[in-house]
């Protein structure tokens, strides 16, 4: 294996084409430098320099070898820089999982944008999945951090509340409900309710079902959609009504009207999930960005 120190000596002599000046740059006496270059030539099996009492020039092999030696040293320097950034938490990879109903939040996009601007050398991977599976994926290391609407069931995952988001009713624009300025659970209960599939593990489903039970209203199951966009498309098609986070109103579907809910309990929680065990510096960095976005101290 080539000695990196000898490669640096070679590069310095190649730049100076003078052993005396190269030795001064390297803070070496000239004889040890000459010996190191000779040792490198012996390892390589060819001469790097043609030397006379007055001139030093690169040989043809030396000129051909020079860009490779320079490339090796540049990669070593880059590796040292990256290692420092990894240790400081300003480079690396971060896998972030999030529930479908969270993706449309302005605060979510603001946090992603702020993190990307602050840590441009971090490769951020976004994974959309159901709240029910986020905890397990954080626990087993598939995800570094999760944004969920369900409290985790595993002791290997801890949750921090980011607050609650109001729910609004999404109704077909040609429905009588669209003419109301505000709606109630009682009014919605006479219509099929469009939810995520029962086996999807949706935290939003859980909040909505609890809201109906709390107000003693029957829930008429309607068709289901695996994404919030699918649910809104079903509403536009007149297949039922839906309760969705306020941020969903950014989906300006012509056939859908959004109305606020009367009930103060019409909310869905927002949680950030992290491993209970020691977490990486990048997770802490993202939590710091989330804290600023959601005004958490």
Automatic annotation (TrEMBL):
<protein>
    <submittedName>
        <fullName>LysR family transcriptional regulator</fullName>
    </submittedName>
</protein>
<dbReference type="InterPro" id="IPR005119">
    <property type="entry name" value="LysR_subst-bd"/>
</dbReference>
<dbReference type="InterPro" id="IPR036390">
    <property type="entry name" value="WH_DNA-bd_sf"/>
</dbReference>
<dbReference type="GO" id="GO:0003677">
    <property type="term" value="F:DNA binding"/>
</dbReference>
<keyword id="KW-0805">Transcription regulation</keyword>
<feature type="domain" description="HTH lysR-type">
    <location>
        <begin position="2"/>
        <end position="59"/>
    </location>
</feature>
<keyword id="KW-0238">DNA-binding</keyword>
<dbReference type="Pfam" id="PF03466">
    <property type="entry name" value="LysR_substrate"/>
</dbReference>
<keyword id="KW-0804">Transcription</keyword>
<dbReference type="Pfam" id="PF00126">
    <property type="entry name" value="HTH_1"/>
</dbReference>
<dbReference type="InterPro" id="IPR000847">
    <property type="entry name" value="LysR_HTH_N"/>
</dbReference>
<dbReference type="GO" id="GO:0032993">
    <property type="term" value="C:protein-DNA complex"/>
</dbReference>
<comment type="similarity">
    <text>Belongs to the LysR transcriptional regulatory family.</text>
</comment>
<dbReference type="GO" id="GO:0003700">
    <property type="term" value="F:DNA-binding transcription factor activity"/>
</dbReference>
<dbReference type="InterPro" id="IPR036388">
    <property type="entry name" value="WH-like_DNA-bd_sf"/>
</dbReference>
């Amino acid at each position: 294996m080539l000695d990196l120190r000898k490669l640096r000596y070679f590069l310095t002599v190649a730049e100076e084409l003078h052993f005396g000046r190269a030795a001064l740059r390297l803070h070496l006496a000239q004889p040890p430098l000459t010996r190191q270059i000779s040792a490198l030539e012996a390892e390589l099996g060819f001469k790097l320099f043609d030397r006379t009492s007055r001139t030093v020039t690169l040989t043809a092999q030396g000129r051909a070898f020079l860009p490779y030696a320079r490339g090796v040293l540049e990669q070593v320097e880059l590796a040292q820089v990256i290692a420092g950034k990894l240790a400081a938490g300003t480079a690396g990879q971060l896998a972030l999982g999030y529930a479908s109903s969270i993706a449309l939040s302005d605060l979510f996009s603001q946090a992603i944008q702020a993190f990307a601007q602050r840590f441009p050398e971090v490769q951020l991977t976004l994974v959309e999945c159901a709240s029910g599976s986020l905890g397990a994926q954080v626990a087993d290391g598939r995800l570094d951090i999760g944004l969920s609407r369900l409290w985790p069931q595993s002791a290997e995952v801890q949750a921090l509340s980011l607050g609650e988001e109001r729910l609004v009713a999404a109704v077909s624009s040609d429905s009588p409900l669209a003419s109301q300025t505000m709606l109630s659970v009682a009014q919605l209960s006479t219509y099929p309710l469009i939810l995520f599939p029962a086996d999807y593990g949706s935290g939003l489903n859980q909040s909505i079902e609890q809201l109906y039970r709390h107000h003693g209203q029957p829930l008429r199951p309607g068709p289901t959609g695996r994404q919030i966009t699918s649910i809104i498309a079903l509403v536009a098609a007149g297949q039922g009504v839906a309760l969705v986070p306020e941020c969903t109103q950014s989906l300006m579907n012509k056939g859908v009207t959004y109305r606020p809910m009367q009930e103060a309990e019409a909310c869905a929680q927002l949680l950030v999930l992290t491993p209970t065990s020691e977490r990486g510096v990048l997770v802490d960095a993202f939590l710091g960005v989330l804290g600023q976005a959601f005004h958490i101290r």
